[in-house]
Specification:
The complex is a heterodimer. Chain A is of the alpha+beta class. The longest helix of chain A has 17 residues. In chain A, 55% of the residues are buried. Chain B is an alpha+beta fold. In chain B, 18% of the residues lie in helices and 33% in strands. Chain B contains 3 helices and 11 strands. Chain B is globular and about 55 Å long. Classes of the chains: A alpha+beta, B alpha+beta. Chains A and B meet through strand 8, strand 31, strand 39 and helix 20 of A and strand 7 and helix 3 of B.
Chain lengths: 979, 179
């Protein structure tokens, strides 16, 4: 039911559904406040025992009221805290962890078995037979213990990630945070004020009190208006700061559209990384409960939450209340209930010496001993002066004091410090560089104290950055002392709950201590206390107080478990925002992409690039038909292939030649202008890094090509070598991969084709094999390289990328006229395997120059990166190293398949791991040789040409007898390429 | 003699408009990488002076009557929109004109859009006139420059489609927040 007042907008009624029941609330309601106003008390079943549970808190720490929110379209979000979920028109929420219904839950039978199901039960009981755990026990337990379910559908909703920067980040917009923001903002600092709530104000929104002579909510509105008018202040509501990281970086989760039924183009959530020079933590405090028998019944609620529902939401959680507390603050609850016209049946204060004055009958030195009511509280029993009393009530407001929200201060390893006067853990000073703590988070619990502390800390943060201004005047406000007697548990029969979300009782904690899981971290893991979605916000301190008592170590000696980010749950979808579908990897397209796609070419991903696999023609049955035809183009006529994806690095300077000698294993300083040389590059550890060609374009000017796969790695390597090893030398490198569109024109008719295309025919004198130079295509300056990756007479022609598509289409048209055409990656691969040319399938990172038959390329006349390491024992060629060497494989039966990844064995040896003598790296059907062929590494393989090996592919079930041959299958003397 | 047809990588992709935000083609007419040869720093500066330019400091861009020059790395700058002829022989010059596409994002909320993709503070006090940075744009690498009107970004030509897609998505989401 509702009472007058509150911060809800009664002009905007909202209808929603809970477990299928139509209900109504108002704008400004949370789902929790609307459920309370609709007299819903039972909202969920507990995790393990399926106990009926109701709303316990009014904040993000809620352990009980976790609901499933159904979205249109079948998507559904589990574990949504009803206390955080704002109401919107058409919202549909379901309770969790019950079957068949919330009121009648079959699994509640677990509760009767509770004496057996104490902490450690599963570990002890389901130890054997071992195989049963995974197959039987765990699935059963998981079915019984649950908190919501995913929809099973991929999450297609939009999420966002963003960066923000500021001088001062103020975390929390309660009285302390507002004053801190005001002080820093007025001083001129760039301020971000973040709060998880939908509106600033913190506790002031929930209490009946005055600030500066007017209602606290009016004072809040005034301050917010001033902050909003300051151009240097940014207020981020619905934004929970979740973690503190290095360099003043804070993670925060903003609920962007979770409060809207129709979000349109808005993302659901935004994951912020806020970089702040200073931070002021004004995160407030969380009220803690008292453990007593049957303290988990719906209708038992934190006292501060009762005031919040009454004052902020005008929603009445109960009409006849009992207050149970160990501190003065809870008396306010009685006053607020009375003012709202409800009966306070008893104020039960554990302190014998507390004030006798209250808005209801006071029982000093009394303790609640039990509760009744199947789906909601009906009766409270308590012990007072040795006698047991019973009182009917539908609401039991509990307060065991307040725990400062120190979480963020602990995210970099700091541990909070126990303060016995406040019976609370306070932040360790300086635990996060650049962060200062104020207000209730620092143990300052009165409103007046928060206001002045916030102002002082806001000014301190700003002045540390050189911003100064007169401190804001501190308005008058409530300034009561925090009077409390530490009290954690009422001893007695029946289970006293600590962690409601994970169903952990005080007895479980004591059992942990008894079984010598006495360290606080061990207790946590043994009982699962603090491991639920609320991460122990409602139970940690009480649990370790009980552990401290059980072990006799005291709270200070017991310490806390580790606080880790996030402060409150962050959805994985928000962390991964932007990564949906292809969002995690940019797509790189060549200039010929459209032309290739128009020809129906399936694209192969090569790194981020998309390259055509083959170009299907009508009548071809499969990719190999197309591939065979395309290989034929190159062997018999002329083929065109886009090779722009290869890395191209421009190298200039008087020391450029010496630099090439350093980074390449072989010599380049002897390379003349107009000539190209094949080069092999080693890593510092002596293994092969990459291969490619480098052209000398002119004096002190080179163009290096890399493989597509290693383009980035080689560029990084060159930059490192240039800066680290060649400082002060005249070497300048620039990537030109993107500037040039480059096409292979390969085959016996390549020169005739180019002669028709170029503005002047190809001069064989200028362009012998491994020659290069400038040419002109329709007046466009182009580069021509006579290099070959196919073994044929071939060229690569490069033009500025803007002309790439036009030149590609032109080249393919001319090639088709000459009986050739476009070829793709499949044919390119076949052509190079036939010639025994390597790719990163071979130079996979564990390969030396000797392994691929290029040992002599590591020049004896000069040093190079990786040379020293390549001389280590075990890296050198020779029988003592017994290394696997590159060989060719031909099946004895040409039709028998060779498979990449298959292992090689001696004929007659068992095909098991211990007998493996090598492995296949590349394979294909060679249309030229009409045989399957492969490249492989075989132990001492170069000496075994002509012998037989057995290729066994355990995955594909292939077993092929092969002859070991030279890796160059076709045109061994290279006459075709040179001719 | 038939001509080769030149084609922009941004053809058909821009302009993109969401609310008052506009993403448009700002590809420089010419991009040249300039790296002064050893001992030629002063000579390069002298050659740049008549163009109204100097070698830029890290994270800065200099603007002259015709062209701009933007810091690109230690001892390296990108000369935009201007012919590099006067620098010949003084610096390693590499034509990159076709390697980059330029995008300009303008309109209220420009910095908010790019805060989704670029991990540096692009608001005017931190990134005002003359500011430039090599910075990631999502998973891409780019050059971000403060322009008279909004912010310009250079990205690899091959990634033009992804760059436009990602910026446009952020534009749509920011526009939705305004609405």
């Amino acid at each position: 039911m509702r009472i007058p007042g509150g911060l809800i907008d009664r002009s905007k009624p909202i209808s929603f559904r809970f477990d299928g029941h139509q209900m109504s609330g108002y704008a400004g309601d949370t789902l929790a406040s609307a459920l309370i106003a609709n007299r819903v008390r039972l909202v969920g079943r507990s995790f393990k025992y399926h106990r009926p549970r109701g709303i316990l808190t009014a904040g993000s720490e809620e352990p009980n009221a976790l609901v499933q929110i159904d979205q249109p379209g079948g998507q559904s979000t589990p574990n949504t805290r009803a206390t955080v979920q704002e109401l919107y028109e058409g919202l549909s929420a379901r309770s969790q962890n019950r079957f068949p219904s919330l009121a009648f839950d079959l699994a509640a039978v677990n509760d009767f078995a509770a004496p057996m199901l104490s902490a450690g039960f599963y570990y002890k009981t389901f130890m054997w037979p071992r195989a049963f755990w995974e197959k039987l026990y765990e699935p059963l337990i998981r079915r019984a213990a649950g908190i919501g379910a995913l929809s099973g559908k991929p999450d297609e909703d939009a999420y966002e990630k963003a960066w923000a920067f500021c001088d001062v980040l103020v975390i929390g917009a309660g009285p302390a945070g507002l004053m801190a923001a005001l002080a820093a903002g007025r001083a001129g600092a760039d301020v971000i004020l973040a709060d998880e709530d939908v509106r600033p104000g913190g506790r002031l929104l929930s209490e009946r009190e005055e600030v500066g002579g007017s209602a606290a909510t009016d004072w809040v509105a005034g301050v917010v208006a001033e902050l909003e008018a300051l151009p240097n202040v940014r207020i981020m509501t619905r934004t929970s700061v979740a973690g503190a990281y290095d360099g003043g970086t804070y993670a925060a989760l903003e609920r962007v559209s979770l409060h809207l039924g129709e979000p349109g183009d808005l993302p659901r959530e935004c994951f912020w990384r806020i970089v702040a020079k200073r931070a002021v933590l004004a995160a407030g405090a969380l009220e803690r409960g008292i453990a007593f028998p049957s303290n988990d019944r719906p209708g038992v609620m934190m006292a501060g939450a009762v005031r919040c529902y009454l004052n902020r939401y005008a929603a009445v959680p109960g009409r006849r209340a009992v207050i149970f507390a160990n501190n003065d603050g809870a008396r306010r609850t009685a006053a607020d209930l009375k003012a709202a016209g409800f009966e306070v049946a008893a104020v039960i204060d554990v302190r014998p010496d507390s004030s006798a004055v209250a808005d209801g009958p006071v029982y000093r030195g009394a303790q609640v001993t039990g509760t009744e009511g199947r789906h909601g509280l009906t009766k409270v029993s308590f012990r007072h002066e040795g006698a047991l009393h019973e009182v009917t009530a539908d609401l039991l407001a509990v307060s065991g004091g307040w725990n400062p929200s120190v979480h963020l201060t602990c995210h970099m390893g700091g541990r909070p410090v126990w303060n016995p006067d406040l019976a609370a853990f306070l932040p360790k000073e300086g635990a996060i560089p650049g962060m200062i703590v104020c207000g209730a988070a620092a143990g300052v619990f009165s409103t007046a104290g928060c206001l002045s502390d916030g102002a002082a800390k806001g000014a301190e943060a700003a002045s540390g950055l050189g911003f100064t201004a007169p401190a804001p005047e501190i308005p008058e406000a409530e300034d009561a002392a925090y009077a409390l007697k530490p009290f954690w548990i009422v001893e007695g029969k029946g289970r006293a709950w600590l962690d409601f979300a994970n169903d952990v009782t005080a007895k479980d904690v004591r059992l942990a201590a008894q079984e010598n899981y006495a360290g606080v971290e061990h207790m946590k893991r043994y009982t699962t206390q603090g491991m639920a979605p609320d991460q122990g916000k409602n139970s940690n301190v009480a649990a370790l107080a009980i552990l401290a008592d059980a072990t006799g170590r005291g709270i200070e000696g017991t310490g806390t478990t580790t606080f880790r980010p996030p402060y409150s749950p962050v959805s994985i979808a928000a962390l991964g925002a932007g990564g949906l579908h292809k969002g995690f990897a940019p797509e790189r397209f060549t200039t010929s992409h459209t032309a290739g796609a128009e020809r129906g070419a399936p694209m192969i991903e090569a790194g981020l690039w998309y390259r055509p696999g083959y170009f299907p023609r009508p009548g071809e049955r499969n990719w190999r038909d197309s591939c065979n035809r395309e290989v034929g183009y190159v062997r018999n006529a002329v083929g065109i292939c886009d090779v722009s994806t290869l890395g191209k690095i421009d190298i200039q300077g008087t020391d450029a030649a010496a630099f090439l000698d350093l980074v390449y294993a072989n010599t380049f300083s002897t390379l003349k202008p107009g000539r190209v040389r094949y080069g092999l590059m080693l890593r510092e550890d002596g293994h092969v890094m990459d291969d490619g060609t480098t052209a000398c374009l002119g004096p002190d000017h080179y163009l290096m090509t890399t493989t597509t796969a290693a383009a980035g790695e080689v560029m990084r390597h060159l930059d490192f070598a240039r800066q680290a090893f060649c400082a002060g030398r005249d070497i300048h490198i620039a990537s030109v991969t993107e500037h040039w569109a480059q096409f292979a024109v390969a085959g016996p008719k390549s020169r005739p084709l180019l002669d028709t295309l170029l503005d002047a025919p190809v001069d064989p004198e200028t362009f012998p094999f491994m020659g290069c130079g400038e040419v002109s295509v329709s007046g466009v300056a182009a580069r021509l390289f006579r290099i070959s990756f196919s073994g044929e007479h071939a060229y690569e022609i490069a033009v500025p990328a803007r002309y790439g598509e036009a030149l590609y289409r032109d080249l393919v048209g001319r090639a088709e006229t000459l009986g050739g055409g476009a070829y793709g990656m499949e044919a390119l691969n076949v052509l190079r395997i036939e010639k025994g040319l390597i790719t990163h399938a071979e130079i996979h990172g564990r390969i030396t120059a000797g392994d691929i038959g290029m040992g002599r390329m590591v020049s004896a006349k000069k040093d190079c990166i990786g040379k020293a390491a390549s001389q280590r024992p075990g890296m050198r060629e020779g029988p003592e190293a017994g290394r696997e060497e590159l060989v060719g494989l031909r099946p004895l039966n040409a039709k028998h398949e060779i498979a990449s990844g298959a292992h090689l064995f001696r004929e007659g040896h068992p095909a098991v791991r211990e007998h493996s003598e090598g492995y296949v790296t590349s394979c294909c059907w060679s249309p030229t040789l009409q045989s399957h062929i492969g490249l492989a590494f075989l132990r001492e393989g170069r000496g075994r040409h002509g012998s037989r090996v057995r290729m066994k592919d355990h995955l594909r079930g292939l077993d092929t007898l092969c002859e070991v041959v030279d890796p160059v299958f076709f045109d061994k003397d290279g006459g075709r390429a040179r001719g | 003699m038939a001509d080769l047809i030149a084609k922009s990588a941004l053809e058909g992709l821009v302009p993109v408009t969401h609310g008052a935000l506009v993403l448009s083609d700002a590809t420089p007419a010419a991009v040249t990488s300039v790296a002064p040869f050893r001992g030629k720093g002063r000579a390069v500066a002298e050659a740049l002076a008549p163009m109204g330019l100097t070698l830029p400091a890290p994270n800065r861009m200099e603007t002259g009557p015709v062209g701009r020059i933007v810091w690109f790395g230690p001892g390296q700058a990108l000369l935009l929109d201007a012919a590099p002829g006067p620098l010949a022989g003084l610096a390693a010059l590499t034509d990159q004109s076709d390697g980059w596409v330029g995008l300009r994002l303008a309109g209220p909320g420009t910095e908010e859009v790019l805060a989704r993709l670029v991990p540096i503070d692009l608001r005017p006090p931190a990134f005002g006139p003359g500011a430039a940075a090599r910075a990631p744009l999502g998973h891409m690498t780019g050059v971000v420059m403060r322009a008279d009107d909004g912010i310009e970004i250079l990205v690899f030509r091959s990634m033009a489609r992804t760059a436009v897609h990602e910026i446009a998505t952020a534009m749509r989401q920011i526009t939705a927040r305004e609405g």
